[in-house]
């Protein structure tokens, strides 16, 4: 418990003196609590939880084993402690739902072989698309629910411009991913596709500081980027869509149409056009500079959807929370907390009245 208190204090940027003052004890007493030589009272723990913005059970219950094992493999969160804290909490909440809701199923299809080359990254992307039930040329339109089908739950939160793009944890059953909702929609989708790779390849716990900003094609993260682009932009589908759109429009119009069809940003599209051999580097640079305008949306009759807008959650996760609430396993306050305040207590469904005989269950 002392170590967890120290971790929470450090993560919130507080000194021992600052936390001690906030909870009304001496700094030396807090130091003894953290090193395990002094007990902490229930009232002190409640004050520590409030000051560090953690739930009390986070300090007293064991962390899910999957999180422990993956965290021990490296030092996560050094560059983005905000997302580090959120992904742990989301993993904890998901484990809670899995434990208490027998209708919730979250199973991984099993790890895929890690790609050692870009060609293997392309192949594993095709495998991943098949697992999600997608055709070889079909756009991946609802990525949140597609990845949920194969056991990866998603939380999008606005973490600001300085936080990491994404983070993910492989759990004993399934996995979770947190996406920085501050990003534009194309970048959010790419970040989730990247985390899908970490999940399917049973990679260690990871915080991805910036997705698609690596130039070393031999690096593991770059192969994951290649995998992510191939998941969102299958080679056959992209080639067909590009040539069809190009017949009726100039380069800019073609880029706008194809980016909208596959719901990607122009940077991702331009890199993928080069990877698939559809365009050379000069034309691809022109594509990268294109920006879709409101006029484009109207004139080209484009369908827009703000996927992974903050705050949003996988549908199955939300349904599990509501089931537990209706069964009175959790309180209204706990339900809204598990839903990350996407609903307030007034939005929760009415509870069914209990029969008079239910009193004997309580007795």
From TrEMBL:
Pfam family membership, one: Peptidase_M78
Example of a GO MF term: DNA binding
InterPro entries per the UniProt record, alphabetical: Cro/C1-type_HTH, IrrE_HExxH, Lambda_DNA-bd_dom_sf, Rad_response_metalloprotease
Organism superkingdom: Bacteria
HTH cro/C1-type domain segment(s): 5-59
Family statement drawn from the similarity comment of this UniProt entry: Belongs to the short-chain fatty acyl-CoA assimilation regulator (ScfR) family.
UniProt name for this protein: Zn-dependent peptidase ImmA, M78 family
Phylogenetic lineage: Bacteria, Bacillati, Actinomycetota, Actinomycetes, Pseudonocardiales
């Amino acid at each position: 418990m002392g170590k967890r208190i120290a971790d929470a204090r450090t993560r919130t940027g507080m000194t021992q003196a600052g936390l001690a003052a906030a909870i009304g004890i001496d700094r030396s007493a807090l130091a003894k609590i953290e090193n395990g030589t002094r007990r902490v009272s229930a009232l002190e723990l409640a004050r520590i939880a409030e000051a560090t913005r953690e739930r009390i059970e986070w300090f007293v219950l064991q962390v899910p084993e999957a999180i422990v094992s993956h965290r021990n493999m490296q030092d996560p969160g050094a560059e983005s402690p905000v997302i580090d804290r959120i992904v742990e909490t989301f993993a904890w909440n998901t484990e809670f739902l899995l434990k208490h809701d027998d209708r919730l199923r979250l199973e991984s299809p099993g790890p895929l072989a890690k790609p050692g080359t870009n060609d293997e990254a392309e192949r594993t992307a095709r495998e991943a698309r098949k697992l999600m039930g997608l055709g070889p040329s079909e756009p991946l339109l609802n990525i949140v629910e597609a990845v949920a089908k194969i056991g990866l739950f998603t939380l999008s939160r606005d973490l600001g411009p300085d936080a990491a793009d994404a983070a993910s944890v492989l759990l004993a059953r399934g996995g979770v991913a947190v996406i920085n909702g501050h990003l534009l929609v194309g970048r959010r989708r790419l970040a989730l596709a990247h985390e899908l790779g970490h999940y399917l390849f049973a990679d260690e716990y990871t915080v991805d500081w910036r997705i698609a900003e690596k130039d070393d094609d031999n690096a593991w993260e770059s192969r994951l980027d290649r995998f992510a682009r191939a998941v969102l932009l299958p080679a056959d589908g992209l080639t067909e869509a590009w040539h069809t759109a190009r017949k009726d429009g100039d380069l800019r119009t073609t880029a706008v149409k194809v980016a909208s069809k596959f719901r990607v940003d122009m940077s991702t599209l331009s890199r993928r056009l080069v990877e698939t051999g559809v365009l050379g580097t000069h034309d691809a640079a022109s594509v990268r500079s294109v920006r879709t305008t409101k006029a484009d949306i109207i004139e080209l009759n484009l369908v827009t959807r703000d996927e992974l807008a903050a705050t949003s959650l996988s549908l199955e996760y939300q349904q599990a929370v509501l089931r537990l609430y209706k069964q009175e396993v959790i309180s209204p306050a706990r339900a809204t907390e598990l839903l990350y305040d996407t609903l307030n207590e007034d939005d929760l469904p009415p509870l069914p009245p209990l029969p008079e005989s239910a009193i004997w269950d309580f007795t």
